């Protein structure tokens, strides 16, 4: 709930604190706030506070639960939920990170969530498409990459990646169209020009 202290605030540590710093903070608070140190009339409140610091420590002392908790903090602001587009950006960054680490199932989930929050974001469509190529879902990848070119028709990188993937899929004429559009957007780029010539050569050989 918005307004409640975070687990970091409960332990009095920062978001980038090390595990040892978190342990030291918990030990200090556990000594100070242990219910046995309080008179009977204050014991109930002390027990609630002690439960708070214990819960915070249990979450933050485990790398996996801490990572999930940190992700949940993305959604929190002092005034309420974040803009969906900002949430999508955070989810995209997480998706790319998980993909680089080889955690493909988790990456796919984050990509899907990012797309759900901002379906018209060309960067999300592009990155999602490249990821789908990596995991062998070529047909879906083609749709994502092509949609990125529709959402951002001035980005030559999107057209280049579309050209390469359509060429790999054997759709030479469509690949040629994307490559030529990339060349129009990035005139004089040697890499793009080389790709155009390669695809034109392949297309000519098929006639």
Give a quick precis of the structure.
The chain has 207 residues and is an all-alpha fold. It folds into three domains: 7-73, DnaJ domain (Helix Hairpins, Orthogonal Bundle), CATH 1.10.287.110; 83-140, Serine Threonine Protein Phosphatase 5, Tetratricopeptide repeat; 153-207.
Account of the protein in words:
By secondary structure, the chain is mainly α. It folds into three domains: about 5-75, DnaJ domain (Helix Hairpins), CATH 1.10.287.110; about 85-140, Serine Threonine Protein Phosphatase 5, Tetratricopeptide repeat (Alpha Horseshoe), CATH 1.25.40; about 155-205. The chain is about 75% helix and about 0% strand. It contains eleven helices and no strands. The protein has helices at about 5-10, 20-35, 40-60, 65-75, 85-100, 105-115, 120-135, 140-150, 155-170, 170-185, 190-205. α6 (about 105-115) packs antiparallel against α7, α7 (about 120-135) runs antiparallel to α8 (about 140-150) and α9 runs antiparallel to α10 (about 170-185). The longest helix has 21 residues, at about 40-60. It is rod-shaped, with a radius of gyration of 26 Å.
């Amino acid at each position: 709930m918005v307004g409640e202290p975070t687990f970091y605030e409960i332990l009095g540590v920062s978001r980038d604190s090390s595990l040892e710093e978190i342990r030291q903070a918990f030990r200090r608070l556990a000594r100070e706030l242990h219910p046995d140190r309080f008179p009977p009339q204050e014991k109930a409140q002390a027990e609630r506070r002690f439960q708070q610091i214990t819960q915070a420590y249990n979450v933050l002392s485990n790398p996996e639960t801490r990572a999930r908790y940190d992700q949940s903090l993305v959604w929190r602001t002092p005034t309420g939920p974040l803009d969906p587009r900002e949430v999508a950006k955070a989810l995209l960054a997480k998706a790319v990170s998980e993909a680089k680490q080889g955690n493909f199932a988790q990456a796919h989930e984050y990509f899907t969530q990012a797309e759900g929050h901002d379906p018209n974001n060309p960067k999300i469509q592009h990155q999602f498409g490249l990821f789908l190529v990596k995991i062998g879902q070529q047909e879906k990848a083609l749709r994502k990459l092509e949609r990125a070119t529709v959402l951002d028709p001035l980005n030559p990188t999107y057209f280049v990646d579309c050209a390469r993937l359509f060429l790999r899929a054997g759709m030479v004429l469509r690949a040629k169209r994307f490559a030529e559009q990339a060349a129009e957007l990035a005139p004089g780029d040697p890499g793009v020009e080389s790709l155009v010539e390669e695809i034109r050569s392949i297309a000519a050989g098929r006639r």
